[in-house]
Amino acid sequence: MKIKAILHQAEEGRYWAEVPALPGCITEGDSLEEVMNNLQDAITGWLEVANEYQLKVGY
Predict the structure, then answer these.
(1) Which residues make Cβ contacts (< 8 Å) with residue 30, sequence separation at least 6?
(2) pLDDT in tens, 1-49
(3) 27 within a domain of the structure (yes/no)
(4) What is this structure's pTM?
(5) Domain that holds residue 43
(6) In this structure, what CATH number is given to the domain that contains residue 22?
């Protein structure tokens, strides 16, 4: 499954990412590698909770 994520660089040099199709699915990290790993965890966690509560995913 492919899910679109938007990566942002904060002014202080850190990174954060959001997944528009998954409301509230946001994460951050000190490097691109860290934010990408955190993003995978955030998406997996979001989808597990959505499945548990039978929520609809908007993508």
Answers:
(1) 14, 15
(2) 789 999 999 989 999 999 999 999 999 999 999 999 999 999 999 999 9
(3) yes
(4) 0.84
(5) 6-52
(6) 3.30.160.250
